[in-house]
Amino acid sequence: MTKTSLPLHALLAGAALSVSAAPALADLVISNWDGYMAPDAVENFAKETGEAAEMVVHATNEEIMGKIIASGGEGFDVAFVSSPFAEVLNNLGLLEPIDAAKVPNLANLYAEAADLPHDPGNHFSVPYAWGTTGLCYRSDLVSPEPASWNDLLHPAEAQAGKVTLLGTDRWLLAAGFLAHGYSVNETDQAKLDEVTADLIEAKKTMLAFDDTTFYSKLVSGEATLVHAWDGWCNYGIAENADIRFIVPAEGSDLWVDTMVVLKASKNKDGAFKFINYILDANNHRWAAENILYKVPNQAAMEGLSADMIAQYPNMGMTPADLLKLEQLRDVGEATRAYAKAVSAIKAAN
Hints:
This protein is α/β, with parallel strands linked by helices. It has helices at residues 41-49, 61-71, 83-91, 149-153, 169-179, 189-202, 214-220, 230-239, 268-278, 281-291, 298-301, 306-311, 319-323, 334-347; strands at 28-32, 53-57, 78-82, 126-138, 163-165, 208-209, 225-229, 243-246, 253-261, 326-327.
């Protein structure tokens, strides 16, 4: 991804955390996206454990990766990063293996959460949230129901000029890859060129590239069909019950945000205590109820109300459903080719 790209879960709406701009002298330093866990989580963790914890915020995966790599992990104990970035950190030798004996609440996770392709067995990362990307649309304004990625890239005449695509490299290209039946982690240059050309053509029927206000455009009716993360579609559903979310017939990506412990941490026991605290069913349920994203914690998800699942049907996707999708992985050197392709798409007339 580019340095300006959003994290995999996007910049989430939620309660503001009491945070500082840089790591401070504390028993435990945790870096997370703003609003991605309960605003009193650090305070309550300290009360329960006696560990003086400090929360710092990163805006993107790239930001925290830069800090961790530059410092060798010094100054951080726990970091929330998306799974492809956890892979990179592990490959660089910067992550401490997860000590399952010190994180008994791992037992709250779904069995499928220990079978993720990036880290089978959760040896270096613990999943915090997971979900997918699909089509979010106004059911009262779009007929028939969209079913394919091509309905987004090559919309019906009635939807032309009322369609938005996510502009972040991985998801923009994933829409094109999936429309052609390719992997979301495709690295073949010929296929990338083919998809780039298709997305340049798709721009002619688009309203905008939009990673942050697409659901508001649906609510207002300015857009009728948008490319959306599942949780962000839920924000639209909260305001207009005619909004729906579907995973296209060709499938989609599985994104996973994780918690990792830095090998350079001077308080690894405290780091594992914090992860264990988050995995408590009541604590982890906060994320599902407040940011409207699925969490891989079976005990937490089983505590959601039936009314909530009825209002936001994608919250009812099962772990088995999610694991049928292809997890976003680190694509290595192809990251540069992705960035070049997206630049070409956005620069095209």
